[in-house]
Amino acid sequence: MQDLPVIEITALNKWFGDNHVLKGIDLNVMPSDVVVVVGASGSGKSTLLRCVNYLESYDEGQIKVSGELVHGGERFINALRAKVGMVFQHFNLFPHMTVMGNVTEGPTQVLKMPKKQAREVGRYYLDKVGLGEKEDAYPGTLSGGQKQRVAIARALAMEPDVMLFDEPTSALDPELVGEVLAVMKRLAEDGMTMMVVTHEMGFAREVADSVAFMDQGVILEQDCPTRLFDAPREARTQEFLGKIL
Amino acid sequence: MYFDITVLPKYLPYFLPAAWMTLKVSALGILLGLGLGLGTAFMRLSEKRLLNLPARAYIYFIRGTPLLLQLLFIYFGLRSLAGLDALNSAVLALGVHNGAYIAEIFRGAIVSIATGQMEAARSLGMTHSRAMIRIILPQALKRAVPSLGNQFIIALKDSSLASAITINELLLKSQQLASSNFMMMEMLTIAALFYLFYTAIFSWFFHRLEVRLDVSNA
Fold first, then answer.
1. Residues of chain A contacting B217 with CB distance shorter than 8 Å
2. pLDDT in tens, chain A (245 residues)
3. pTM
4. Beta carbons of B188 and B174 less than 8 angstroms apart
5. Do A84 and B142 touch (CB under 8 A)?
6. What is the ipTM score, two decimals?
7. Smallest CA–CA separation between B101 and chain A, in Å?
8. What 3-state DSSP class applies to A194?
9. Angle at B154 between CA B196 and CA B14, to 5 degrees
10. A106 vs B116: CB contact, 8 Å cut-off?
């Protein structure tokens, strides 16, 4: 089992109309690994991530999650998404529900967990992201960093096999980025399998097992962070890192 | 112009049955409109042509013709066909008319809820309809409240058109009384006072509702 990738992307192609946004992507995420995807905006990295839980469809190639082929069947999609956690750039918390309501919504509505049990699960994960005391607050009263940590707890409460992060700190004020990255780092240390799209190179260097550099719909190179950051092979990678670091 | 303000208290009680009729026609019409509006909004939002085409046609025809014409159409059309009486015709016409506008209010409110909300709900594994019920609708209804309040007030005043099909509501009552006592301005004033009274109550109620739901924070 240990050898089976949690996410296995093979020769993936996607078009938006005439725009070829993903051009033959191959990428594996092994259990407990953290794979970080970096690249300029418009390189297709968010689209790639969103294909994994089928928020975006794809045209050619295949994606397997825990060995199962990802396809558009309604029932399959819902089951897939229940075990693939997703964290968005803009948090997308449910503003009409309390923090606890947000975190228990998935377990009660999708997993049919009894309310009481869901609250225990919710409390456990809210403590984990350091927001145990905020369970009765509404999202509107939280800072951006707190919102994103609630969003992480909401995804974790489904006890997913893998977590997807779509630029989780890009909408945050600089001073709030650290608290979110710290939660993600702890999650990685606990052995969570993660696929992360981010511009936080420090996080990638410190936490990632593997970093993929995407450019114009292609993974130009993928390597351990030390080699990718210190000795990138491709000129485009060097240029990108030169601009961002 | 001669205007005798002293007759107002004397004639006011004569208007009470008519005031009740105005309220009844408006309230029933609004209720019917709410149901039709919500259903039509979902049909209109559907990607299936079989659902969204009829909804679009309904909205187009209703918004494209005057309410008075619709009232007469339903009254004279359905009286012979289905034996519908004047009251039922008025309620049906007002309901069908407002349904089209309310559908657009609901639709606008639903699409105004960011797609991120739907994505977040779906990414937890919720079905589309569960996400709609649990996540989108509660927020959309809240956002629709100010426009609905506006539409309700319009519906209340539009009920006066039912006078054209013999519904003895406020406006018709004022005309009947004026034709015998020749105090047209005074009778119109009494009718106006009732409308203003209802509108004030509606406005107050919706204001309270907005505060309660904290609409500005939606």
1. 95, 140
2. 457 999 999 999 999 999 999 999 999 999 999 999 999 988 999 999 999 999 999 999 999 999 999 999 999 999 999 999 999 999 999 999 999 999 999 999 999 999 999 999 999 999 999 999 999 999 999 999 999 999 999 999 999 999 999 999 999 999 999 999 999 999 999 999 999 999 999 999 999 999 999 999 999 999 999 999 999 999 999 999 988 77
3. 0.86
4. yes
5. no
6. 0.92
7. 26
8. strand
9. 40
10. no
